[in-house]
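User: What would this chain look like folded?
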Amino acid sequence: MFLCSEDGTHVSQRTFTSPVTFYLTLFFCTVTLLCILFNYRDKRTRYALALSAAGAGCVMGSVVAAGGLPLYYLGVFLVGAGVWLNGSLLFFIRKLRNSASKAVAFDG
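Assistant: Here's the prediction, encoded as C-alpha cells.
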C-alpha cells in the first residue's frame, strides 16, 4: 500500500502520500517504538530505540516528503535492526565471537 502509485497498478519510484498512508505509517512506527520501550532490557534497548527511531524517521520522511524507495527501505532496515538488537542480536554476536576465538586458539 505504501509503495504503490495513485492508480495502484505499478510500483512507483516515489511513495504515494495520502492522509491514510500517513496515519497508518505513523501508527505502526509508534507501536514499534513503544513495543521496544516496553521490552526494556538494559542499555541495548536505548541503542535499539535510537536505531529504530532513526529508521522510523526515514520511513516517515519518505512517506511525507515522497523521499523515494531508497529512503523507505533504509528506514525499514533500521527499524528491523533496532528490533533485532533489542531482541537477540547480542546473542548472535557473542556466539560468533566465541566460535572465532575457539578457531584462533585451535589454529594457534
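The helical segments are 19-38, 43-65, 69-87, 89-107. If you want, I can go into more detail on any region.
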